[in-house]
Amino acid sequence: LDVSMDAWNFYYTCLLSLWLHRFYIYSVVAFGISIWIVIQFFKTKKNVTASEGTEDKLVNGYATLQAKEVYVAGVKIFYGSQTGTAKKFATGLAEAVISLNLPVEVINMADYDPDDCLPEETASRNVCVFLVATYTDGQPTESAAWFCKWLGEAANDFRFGKTYLKGLRYAVFGLGNSVYVDHYNTVGRNIDRWLWMLSASRIMTRAEGDCNVAQSKHGSIEADFEAWKAKFLSRLQALCRGEKKPCSGKCKKGKCKSSRKQSKESSDHEHGASEYENAEAEELFETSSEEETDAEEAGGTNSVVDVEDLGNIMSYMKKAKGYTNARIHVWALVSVLSLADPWLNCATVVTDALIYFLFSGYKLIGSHSGVKLCRWTKSMLRGRGGCYKHTFYGIESHRCMEATPSLACANKCVFCWRHHTNPVGTEWRWKMDQPEVILQEAIENHQNMIKQFKGVSGVKADRFEEAMTAKHCALSLVGEPIMYPEINRFVKLLHQHSISSFLVTNAQFPDEIRNLEPVTQLYVSVDASTKESLKRIDRPLFKDFWQRFLDSLKALSEKQQRTVYRLTLVKAWNVDELKAYADLITIGKPDFIEVKGVTYCGESSASNLTMANVPWHEEVVRFVQELADLIPDYGIACEHEHSNCLLIAHKKFKVHGEWCTWINYDRFQELVREHERSGGSKTFTAADYTAKTPRWALFGSRERGFDPSDVRYQRKNKARDISGC
């Protein structure tokens, strides 16, 4: 017992001592760990230094090109040539790049799909070189036409965002003839500017070769190219060494100080190899494009000009062809002048719309109409799937024309993807074009836009031929189509051309809805379910907007053809009003209810929406399921995951247990012709032209609304969805 007591006393004493001196023990342990970390750090550093030394010996003087961190992974040389000169230059440049032990790829623009591949260059560490010729009337060569069209639209479409090509490094050499002064090297200048507008980084100033030997800086276009090539190779070697500045660095705002009197373009250098690190970086990145300088001289975003300067301003606009930072508020000016001369009211839409459409790739028609090629039309032309209307109603997206007979709108919705650049108004007060003229020009413009896809990589020949004949018209491009006084004549003309009509209204014109002739499908945008939220989201111009809204829904319930509620979900704005939405459905009794998550359209001073307001598809599904539980006469019919959209349909469209949400378009044309021949006495209903919905389009299907006859394309490293429809 004594021995055990002694052992216990010994252990107790030791434990007590350790506890009393625990802080010293902790300190010793921490000191030991610190010493170990320092030793490991120096060991690692020593190994890295030794490894770099070994690489230096292996490459014998070219270690900077083979450093552990690869600054340039390779060079891609794009050429657009008509006579073969640009192709010859591309081949010669490729041979020179190969001599630097760098991978190189020569690409004919005709065989390249910029929509798929160009954004991937933002993270590839490649340097992209563009050798492009200017052809007749300043147009690109046939091989470069599609590339230029896509790039120009991307640069002027806010849905892509200003930083869409951030990280892409490039250089441009243009081929032209200064004899044609008005179009000299237009294509090279445009490509340079468009890439810059999308935040791509120039590694050196754009150069231009001149076929006119009398004006060529070096005596011939070949000599011009050789001089530029030498500078390019020197710049490329500097990039391979990790150097980011193309000059000594003693510059202010990217402009090199030169002792010689040179032109502004040749003396301006851009520090474009480095990426933008903050919002002000773009200001330090000076452009070498004359058109950008012209635009700045013409006026900034918020500039107001005198009447005498309008001619100069519009010439700048025509020359720039879409430079977004030069939008002038001419519409506001004309509106003020209209106080003195009411006739100027007729030009209000024209002036503002002209500027707007020049910047957006839209085609202006007459005084108040427009047409544009939908991205889903392009997608289906290439066999990559159609829009949600294809899934829900069976339209052929590649044969759909998106248009409007009225640019003006009575709302200023917070999620408007046009950023409120179109005019607004509560009544028609503009010079009116005849519906025959509008339709004819709409079809012609649409066909011309389709023609530009001829020969484009991936476009299916059979669909291209079909697309030349429009079969559907979505009157939802911009504005309020139902405001157009001759909307009924316009719709009848569509039907006479065997074109189905999908008309969208913002529920502020109930009388016009009642007086509307039969259309294939009539939509009403129901963006909120209470007076307060509707005012906050749609920001209507009418003071009695809520009563107009309710009257429009009542007018919709009186229509015999297909009717649709269009709900756009904006997270934190209108997703918590399920019961109120259900009440509105009992008023309008729509055949279908489309529920779609809002599409983020980029930053805008007109709206404070962010990506945080865009609901996930699962959130939209949950909302639809909860809403369907509140409306027993309806069920969830279809889903188009790619558009973040679902369709709720009235159960009268579920025939013998199968959904029939698709449209028999031929049957509709027969019915509407009979209706017109009878003077309106022979009517028909939505049930008379339905068609069975395919399995892949149904909610819960494995395809989730994507047509299995097409191939879904998902871009690598895609930052966000810019779909919209």
UniProtKB/TrEMBL annotation:
Pathway: tRNA modification; wybutosine-tRNA(Phe) biosynthesis. It catalyses: N(1)-methylguanosine(37) in tRNA(Phe) + pyruvate + S-adenosyl-L-methionine = 4-demethylwyosine(37) in tRNA(Phe) + 5'-deoxyadenosine + L-methionine + CO2 + H2O. Residues 75-233 form the Flavodoxin-like domain. Keywords: 4Fe-4S, Iron, Iron-sulfur, Lyase, Membrane, Metal-binding, Nucleotide-binding, S-adenosyl-L-methionine, Transmembrane, Transmembrane helix, tRNA processing. Probable component of the wybutosine biosynthesis pathway. Wybutosine is a hyper modified guanosine with a tricyclic base found at the 3'-position adjacent to the anticodon of eukaryotic phenylalanine tRNA. Catalyzes the condensation of N-methylguanine with 2 carbon atoms from pyruvate to form the tricyclic 4-demethylwyosine, an intermediate in wybutosine biosynthesis. Belongs to the TYW1 family. This is S-adenosyl-L-methionine-dependent tRNA 4-demethylwyosine synthase TYW1. It comes from Himantopus himantopus.
